[in-house]
Amino acid sequence: MKKLMVLVLFVFVSISFAANYVNAYTTLEEPLAKVLFAEFEKETGIKVNWIRLSTGEVLARLEAEKNNPQASIWVGGVGVFHVEAKLKGFTTPYKAPYSQFIDPKFKDPDGYWIGLYVGPLAFATNKNKAKELGINPPKSWADLLKPEYKGLIRMANPNTSGTAYNVITTMVNIYKRDENKVFDYLKKLDANVNMYTKSGSAPGKDCAIGETTIAIGYLHDLVKLQKEGAPIIITLPADGSGYEIAAMSLIKGGKEPLEAKKLYNWILGDKAQGIIASWYVIPLSPKAPKNKVVYKLEDINLIQQDLLWEAQNRERLIDRWNKEIGK
Q1: pLDDT score recorded for residue 292
Q2: Read out DSSP for 91-145?
Q3: 21-26 and 214-218: which strand pairing?
Q4: Strand partners, 52
Q5: How far apart are CA 240 and CA 237, in angstroms?
Q6: How many angstroms separate the Cα of 167 from the Cα of each of 61, 126, 162?
């Protein structure tokens, strides 16, 4: 009888200490994250305490908090940073039941991260500003170097933005890893850039309100602005689009591992995939409704990317960017 009472007490204590929340870092835009996490809480009763950070900021936090993690899951963010987080031991493997539906090339073979959607790089041009200046929208990366675009382009800073680092790796692939040609291009592009923002989505927002004439960003962010009435023209680079695989990882040593796995599983499920598909992204799960997708992968000239190489060389390439361009 005494053993039974001890067992019941143990079970009661275990249940009472089960978390009804999960701490998360997210790189999704705040309105999108709010909808997604609110729906999860509504369905499960588990509250998501989330902080929105740029991709580079998440990686910096994981580095600083390695011995005492303050979050248990990372939702969103450019896949190459998730690869880097794996290499540095910041994340932990997990193969969720729904992960079987994601193409192997869009997920880690060991289960450290999984892709949620693909976001190609694209250009936005403010129609009103372009008309006023008498210029046409750029249609390629080569176009961005034209003298008529001097001081008219806005992009993010690769120190804090995965979007901007994706611009660098796009050039690495276009120039077949000839890094001298890559940085020659980036220096010429710098002459036409009016500002480097912290966030990858900021240039598009600035373009939408006429603070800059041209912006480099991810296609889905620009489509959303256009659908909301922004006077922008969207063009995809004919010489090849780099792209993000927005991914998700569990954080090693996170204090709410069970709740984090529940959120991970739920995001790969039908309800969450329907929400994600409404963001104008290109979802990777076949569970996402196709009628909400504006662009398909086959419509875009995507370059071939090597996420492992990009992760292994990120710090070196950004250091060179800082020395030669961002100084």
Answers
A1: 66
A2: EE----GGGGGS-GGGB-TTSS-EEEEEEEEEEEEEHHHHHHHT-PPP-STTGGG
A3: unpaired
A4: 26
A5: 6
A6: 23, 20, 9
Tokens of 137: 């929208």
| pLDDT reading at 239 higher than 50 | yes
Domains of the chain: 21-118+244-295 (3.40.190.10), 119-243+311-325 (3.40.190.10)
Location of structure tokens 């998501």: 48
Taking every pair of Cα atoms in the chain, the longest distance, rounded to a whole number of angstroms, is 88
Tell me the per-residue pLDDT of 271-323, one tens digit each, with 9 for 90 and over: 898 898 888 888 888 878 776 677 877 888 999 889 899 989 999 999 999 99
Dihedrals phi, psi of 165, to nearest 5 degrees:
-65, -30
* Single-letter amino acid code for the residue at 151: G
Q: How many other CB atoms sit within 10 Å of the CB of residue 20?
A: 11
Helix-then-strand count for the chain, H and E: 13, 11
pLDDT digits (tens, 9 = 90+) for 49-85: 999 998 889 999 999 999 999 999 999 988 889 999 9
pLDDT of residue 285: 84
